[in-house]
Structure formats: structure tokens, C-alpha cells
Amino acid sequence: MVVIFLKNNVTVTHVQLRRMSPIDDEAPARVAGDASTTSRTLAAILACFTLQLQLLSAAQRAFELYADGEVVRRELHDFGVPCVARQPAKRRRARYEDRRDLVTCEELHGNAKWFRAWRESTYAQYYALEDSDGYEQNMERDVVLRKEFEKKIRMPLRLFHRLRNEMSRDPWFQERHTAVPLEIKLVAALRYLAIGGGWQVVEDIVNVSRQVLCTWFAEKFVPWMLKHKYEANVRYPEDASELAVLMQPYEEAGFPGCIGCVDGVHVDWKGYPAADKWRYVGKEKRPTLVANCTTDYWGRFIHVTRMLPGSDNDKSAICQDDFQARVMREDDTYVHAEYRLQTDLSTAITRKGVYVLADGGYLGWPTTVSPIAHPRPGSAEENWNKHHESLRKSVECAFGILKARFRVLATRNEARDENEVSDVFRVCCCLHNMIYNFRMAERMEQETSAEISDWRRMDAEELECLHRHMPTATTMSSHPTPSAVDSVELRQLQLQLASHNTFYMYARATVEMQRRRQNVESVGLDEHRARAMWHG
Predict the structure, then answer these.
(1) d(Cα 364, Cα 476) in Å, to the nearest integer?
(2) Which residues pair with 268 in a beta bridge?
(3) Distance CA 136, CA 448 (A)
């Protein structure tokens, strides 16, 4: 018996040979030994395979004649195999009658009953806000509403409108006319990053289905931000001019050649695999993911690695950092960058190769300068360590600002894939840099000083202390031997930086004290002249 199945251009033949006449108990032995029976069996199988090939070729030729939704039956009828055209899909969900919205007077299709009333959410008043250019003539209009909206989405209103307009012009976000507007989905995505309370909370805020928001966020918003915005905002210098911009503020602070700070940040993860929990529990005593980040002086991220298990320490994380392990140690722009170190009040040396500030947990590379271990109390090394710590705190402040602005990083992320957590973290770093760059550009447009008022301005007591004590040169022999992880080159760089910082801060304090004395004398002279003119 031959049974032939034809489905999706594939022919399956089932061959079953059965004896038609009864035999006795010894028949199996006689049949097995009968050569003629074996040959007939093989011939039947060969005939079945030949028929199968014929049916397959006929089916292929018949289905190639598909045109305008109709199947032309030709050769299949010769074999008695019916070929039925595909039936149209049936609606599984009931369709309601079309009606007109009583509020907006818009035509609503029947399936609109399944949509949530996003027009009636509490954020409807924010959707009605105009572009920021419309408030230039009257800055007091909707000022409270605008501030509330910027506080909720953690972004200036003008930057939000700029991002929305750029997304609306991209075909990637083009959807059917009945879909939820792009502006509402963007507000929901930013609000989710800001509060980190889960999509159930955002669903009640914007009155849009959780499934719609979650799908748009994961499949549209995050990939678009990583593709179009991340590389433009989170990037390290690629030429000498950009590198000099990062070195300038550190040189003023007494650390020439420094371009930033590096450290690792942990993000709690709730969706970890239960069998691999030991890989994600580290010093935080809970499952986390860690990323190695490099920031500049102003707290902007210039490089972020992919997320690693929380049990990895700083030594293993920096080895997987492409910027620290390859670019800073092999790129000619970084290797041949020159800077001067003051080894005496009248002597200076020139060094090549930039570095970043790190804590004591990193490897002893010359590109990652950590504090000097076990300095003598009151020595130049101890003072240098204090300046080192005060400079390196910028990366810790960046982490605090990032997690305070986007609470999704401070709560336990429930994503099952660690790549999703890594993508969300990189998007938050990108938005952090976008907000900072936008606000700095606004300050420059207002013709105000773009310099950030920071701790580099020394008070009178510190100036007097530095100016009173004459620094002495430091030598390598006067310090304890370096640790096993520190290289000799790193140790030498640390001592040279300590000497430079000592002489640089003394010279700076001297100049600053002279300037202040001149200002006091000029102010006193002006007051004396004013009194003389008044009494005269």
C-alpha cells in the first residue's frame, strides 16, 4: 500500500508492504530466504520513489503557475490530488460598529473599542504644550506647566521637541493612522526611565496598553537611540585637538596629561538565571551587572563597556574595555600626546602618553594612575593623594547623577536578557550627555560663562597654607617599594606627578595671593579717592 501526502510543495511517500495471503508459522523463514521476494520488494520501493519524484516535479510546476490568487490545476489532476486555494484569514476578535467620537468628532473604526482612551490621561495638558520657540516672546506663559513636564521626563522641553521631530521624520517610526501618537510613546519611554517603576505604572499614567509601550520601547526606541544618538554623544577623542580639550581642565588642576577618570558601576538585576546566581553576586552582596565607564572632567561619559557579571572586579573589567586596553595604549593620538611636568621651581620635563585617574583596584598600568599606597603623613605624596581623590570624585558624581536622574538603573531590572539591561544603561548614558551638552549650549547662547564653578577655586586659608610652605623635591628612593601590581613606570609617573603638583600648587598659590593683594590695594585706593571726592 502506498500513501502519498502533498503539502507545501513537499511530497511525502509512505510505503507499507503487506502479505495478502495467509501463511503458516514457517512462512517468515521461507520468505526471508526467498531471493525473488526480496527483489520484488526492492522493485516496489524503487517504483514508489520514482512515483514520488514525478509527483514532486508535477507539484512544483503546478505551483509555479500561481497568478492573481488562483491556482491553475494541470498535472495534479492526473494523479487525483486536489489542490485547494488558500482561504482568507478570519477575524478572531469581534468588530464593533464604526462610530464618531463625541469629543473630537473623529471617525473611529470598530476596533477602536479595544484601544485605551489615551486622550483622557492626566498628561493631556503636557501634550498641548507648544514648541519652545513659541514661548520666546512671552517666557512667563505656561512656565509652571513647562517646569513640571521637564521635571517628569528629566529633559528640557526644547530638547524633547527636537528629539520628537527627529523621530517623526524617520521612516522607522511610521505606523498606521490608528496607532498611538509618537509623542505619547516617547513621553512614556522617558517616564519609564525616570521612575523605574515598571510598565504597569506607566500604563496608568499615559493610559496606553502596557504591551504597546513595552514593545515600542524595546523594538523601536532603544535600537534607534543606540544607532543614531549613542555614537554621536558617547565618544572619545579621535584627534589631537579634541584630546587637548579634555586635558586642559586637568592641567589647571595640577594633573597635566590626564583626560578623565575610570571606574565601574553596578546595576541591580532581578532577572538573572537562578542556576548562575554565583556569577552575578560580587562585593554588592546581591545579583548585579557591572560596566566599566570613563568620564571626562565635567562628568560626561566618553566610553562605556558592555555589562559584565557583578562578580567581576575592576582588574578583569578593564581588560575587556576596548578604550582602556587598546586605544589608550596603542593609538598614536594618545601614545604620542605630550605634556610638561614641573620637577623643580625652574626645571620641567616632557612626557608622552596620556592617562586617566583610577582607584587602587585597577591594574598597575601607566595609563591608569591610582593613588600612592601608604604615603608618609604630611608628605607631598599624601597631599597629592588628596588632590587625586578630589579629582577622581567626578566619576562617582556622574554615577550618582545618572542613577538619580534615571531611576530605572537604581531599581532591580526585571529583564531576562542581560543585553537588554546593557542597552538600557547605554541609552541612559547617551541621554545624560545629551542633556549636559544641550544645557551648556544654552548657557553659551545666553552669553554667560560656560565654565562650571567648581572646587578648583581655593579659599584664602588654603592659599595661605600653600604659599607659606616652600616645597622640596621628591625622590624615588625616599618612598617605599611599589606593590606587586604596580609597574616601575607607573611608580615613576606617580612620583613625578606628585612633584609637579607640589610645585604647581605653590606657584599657583603665590600668583593668586599676589593678585588678591593687588585687588585689595586697588579697592582701598578707589575707596580713598571716593571719600576724598565726596568730602572735597
Answers:
(1) 17
(2) 288
(3) 18
User: How many CB atoms are closer than 10 A to CB 375?
Assistant: 18
**β-pairing verdict for 10-15 and 2-7:** antiparallel
CB atoms closer than 10 angstroms to residue 369: 22
In one-letter notation, the amino acid at residue 44 is A
Residue with cell 496606553: 208
User: What is the β-pairing status of strands 338-342 and 308-309?
Assistant: unpaired
Show me where the domains of the chain are located. 2-79, 116-233, 240-448+459-515
CA dihedral 387, 389, 392, 393 (to 10 degrees): -120
pTM of the predicted model, to two decimals?
0.71
Q: Which DSSP state fits 337?
A: -
Cell of 459: 579659599
The pLDDT value given to residue 513: 62
Q: Is the pLDDT of residue 25 over 80?
A: no
Interatomic CA distance for residues 348 and 210, integer angstroms: 63
Partnered with residue 357 across adjacent β-strands are 261, 369
What are the C-alpha distances in Å from 40 to residues 48, 78, 132? 12, 26, 89
C-alpha to C-alpha distances, 179 to 33, 208, 321, 397, nearest whole angstrom: 74, 11, 41, 40
Q: How would you class 393 by CB atoms within 10 Å of its CB: exposed for 0-12, middle for 13-18, buried for 19 or more?
A: middle
C-alpha cell at 508: 599657583
Cα 14 from Cα 45, distance rounded (Å): 10
Closest CA to 471 of 407, 394, 378, 385: 378
What digits encode the pLDDT tens for the residues 208-222? 888 889 999 999 999
Q: What are phi and psi of 230, to 5 degrees?
A: -65, -50
Q: What angle do CA 130, 142, 440 make, to 5 degrees?
A: 75
- pLDDT band at 444, cuts 50/70/90? confident
Half-sphere exposure of 99 (CA within 13 A, CB side): 10
Count of alpha carbons within 13 Å of 143, Cβ hemisphere only? Answer: 6
Query: Which amino acid, one-letter code, is at 37?
Result: T
